[in-house]
Amino acid sequence: MAKYKKKCSSFIIFLLVCIIVALSGKIVYETALEFLYPKKYTEYVEQYAEEYGIDETLIYAVIRTESGFDPNAISEADAIGLMQMTEETFDWLTMKTGEDYEFNDLFTPEISIKYGTYFLSVLQNEYAITETVIAAYHAGMGNVSSWLSNPEYSDDGQNLKNIPISDTAHYVNKVMSAMDNYYKVYTEE
Q1: How many whole angstroms separate alpha carbon 86 and alpha carbon 66?
Q2: The three-state (H, E, C) secondary structure of 93-141, written as one string
Q3: φ and ψ at 71, to 5 degrees?
Q4: d(CA 5, CA 67)
Q5: 37-64 pLDDT per residue, tens
Q6: Of 29, 36, 117, 138, which is most buried with the most CB atoms under 10 A?
Q7: Architecture of 40-187 per CATH?
């Protein structure tokens, strides 16, 4: 009987250790994901997500992919700010809003998030499908509209079955993956 109690106690201790290791592993994993997929500039993301009807997760995923949350980021294409907008796109958007900002104002996080989110809303109204919106954010509306009208790239004029520019295809995959991870970290229990 004593031998049985000792085995039972050892088994219970082993189970408790396994549970503690599993829980701590889950905590470490979740902490690592929170570090890799941060939520910065939350007040601006929430404000403009609500104002323009855009999923906050998409905004965070675009910022993470575009600039890694660096408000002073400048791309090889001379896109700037958190959401990496080109001067041509920014000028078009400020013309639509009637606001008087300079291109370098995109280095200000609030302005970058406001105009990046506004641009996402314009694209969402045009294309509706998240992957198509993301492709247009990266490659431009002209390219995406052309692809959607080509049966080689779209069967229905709304979904892209193929993206002919590999950088854009890669970008769409990165943003969609980031969105998935943001959902995992911040919405799943």
Answers
A1: 12
A2: HHHHHCCCCCHHHHHCHHHHHHHHHHHHHHHHHHHCCHHHHHHHHHHCH
A3: -65, -15
A4: 59
A5: 999 999 999 999 999 999 999 999 999 9
A6: 117
A7: Orthogonal Bundle (1.10)
Total-model pTM: 0.84
pLDDT category at 34 given cuts 50, 70, 90 is: confident
33, two tokens: 């994901």
Q: Name the nearest CA neighbour of 120 among 131, 110, 134.
A: 134
Cβ burial, residue 128 (10 Å; 0-12/13-18/19+): exposed
Q: Whose CA is closest to 167, among 87, 88, 75? A: 75
Whether residue 104 contacts residue 80, with contact meaning beta carbons closer than 8 Å, is answered with yes
Q: How far apart are the first and last CA of the chain?
A: 43
Task: Report the alpha-carbon angle 142-148-151, nearest 5.
Answer: 135
Tokens of 41: 């500039």
Neighbours of 96 (CB within 10 A): 11
